[in-house]
Write a structure and sequence with these properties.
This protein is α+β, with helices and mostly antiparallel strands and about 375 residues long. The chain has 14 helices and 10 strands. The strands form 3 sheets. The chain has a 4-stranded antiparallel sheet, with helices on one face. A 4-stranded antiparallel sheet has the order 5-8-10-9, sandwiched between helices. Helix 4 crosses helix 5 and helix 7 runs antiparallel to helix 12. Flavin mononucleotide binds next to helix 5.
Length: about 375
């Protein structure tokens, strides 16, 4: 993400670096490398319809931008989708629930993209057997066959290149009721139920819970380290590894050059890098006028995939409406330090015993943010 001047100045407290930045002068440096965002241009001259649809699918939202997808195209007319088990998040997502949601988002974009070229996606889930509910194996999550039937394009397809997870403080404006209604009115396929909380009292409660959850994640060394290990700081690192949590732009260029922003510093309480990370995340949480969440009755792999499919459709619809959306998953995560706050959240969210809130997200308004990096399609191929 490009860190804003406002966020940065808050982080460094207006010291030497802040003064240099306020003076300007480095606006053009440390830009996002073009290669890292090239996939947002779509399939270009690809001719295989599977590769064309996959070129859009890899733009799906996914946890920590790990892009945990592997595809096998070795059988004619077929796509096998697997979890890339080298790209899991074992500390914050110990049961790979979020990783599997990130396969639902991928499958939904795949289906939209195939549909835009007249193909229906016949998706067979778990063609080699159901995985255990809390494990991911080498067996595929889905076998997809594209059937040319002149399917009409879904208008949401055109939003794919514009969709973002908008990781910014939102304007102090309520979510317009017609926007909340349009999101609530999205056709429900699958099992995920949507709730949107727009009233000021409830939004304040969810802001407070979100802030507390962020603090638990950031102050628990092993969960913080999971994010720090996935930081890509500066354009060179992003070009070499177009995934994970990217930080670039003049502000980070300065911090890096002054030795203030290193993975070690970001892990060390009392440093600018550590405190800046906390302040920045809390800044998002505090500037949130409304929250939404998706709930499922079960928590099996299929429910998680369906939640992912529903989530990205909402994200695309929000894009069309000009509404910003951003998942804040901390309180949903299944590790012991989060358990007490999670129970408080589930009660506030009205979840019934046994139900699982699969996605929690901020809703509001902000300027369009730039696209996040993606690996090229060939990086997803199994050989
Ligand atoms: C299951 C899931 C959980 C996510 N949780 C978070 C989160 O807690 N915090 C966050 O900033 N982004 C979260 N995201 C958004 C990803 O960080 C984002 O999709 C990724 O960085 C790629 O950016 P993009 O969506 O703008 O393309 C989540 C996405 C998914 C699918």
């Amino acid at each position: 993400m490009v860190v804003s001047r406002r966020g940065f100045i808050r982080v460094v407290g207006g010291g030497v670096v802040g003064a240099a930045l306020v003076g300007g002068g480095l606006q053009g440096c440390d830009r996002m490398p073009a290669s890292a965002v090239a996939p947002w241009a779509g399939p270009g001259s690809e001719t295989d319809p599977r590769r064309r649809a996959l070129s859009w699918a890899l733009l799906a939202p996914n946890p920590h931008n790990m892009q945990p997808w592997l595809v096998d195209l070795r059988r004619e007319g077929e796509i096998m989708l697997h979890v890339d088990r080298t790209r899991l998040l074992p500390e914050t997502d110990p049961f790979a629930r979020q990783i599997v949601i990130g396969h639902g988002t991928f499958l939904e974009l795949l289906a939209l993209a195939a549909g835009a070229e007249g193909y229906r996606c016949a998706i067979e889930y778990f063609p080699e057997g159901q995985p255990a509910p809390d494990d991911v194996t080498e067996r595929p999550l889905a076998r997809i066959r594209l059937q040319h039937d002149g399917t009409a394009a879904d208008p949401l397809f055109s939003q794919i290149p514009l969709r973002r997870s908008s990781k910014e403080p939102y304007h102090q404006t309520s979510l317009q009721s017609e926007h909340a209604q349009a999101l609530r009115g999205m056709p429900r396929s699958g099992v995920a139920q949507l709730t949107i909380a727009t009233d000021a009292t409830r939004a304040a409660l969810f802001r407070s819970i979100t802030e507390q959850a962020m603090l638990i994640e950031l102050e628990t060394p092993r969960t913080l380290k999971e994010s720090i290990d996935r930081l890509r700081i500066g354009a060179d690192a992003i070009a070499a590894q177009p995934d994970g949590i990217e930080l670039h732009g003049p502000f980070f260029w300065w911090l890096s050059r002054l030795g203030l922003m290193t993975p070690e510093k970001a892990m060390t309480p009392g440093t600018t890098a550590y405190q800046g990370g906390i302040d920045y995340a809390l800044g998002w949480a505090r500037a949130t006028p409304a929250f939404g969440w998706l709930t499922t009755a079960a928590n099996d792999r299929l429910s998680q995939i369906e939640a992912g499919r529903a989530y990205v459709r909402l994200n695309l619809k929000a894009t069309e409406l000009g509404v910003a959306m951003h998942p804040v998953s901390q309180v949903l995560q299944e590790y012991p330090e989060m358990a007490t706050l999670q129970r408080e959240f589930l009660s506030a969210a009205g979840a019934m015993p046994g139900q699982t809130v699969q996605m929690l997200f901020r809703l509001g308004y902000c300027e369009q943010v730039p696209p996040s990096p993606r690996r090229p399609l060939d990086a997803l191929m199994m050989s």
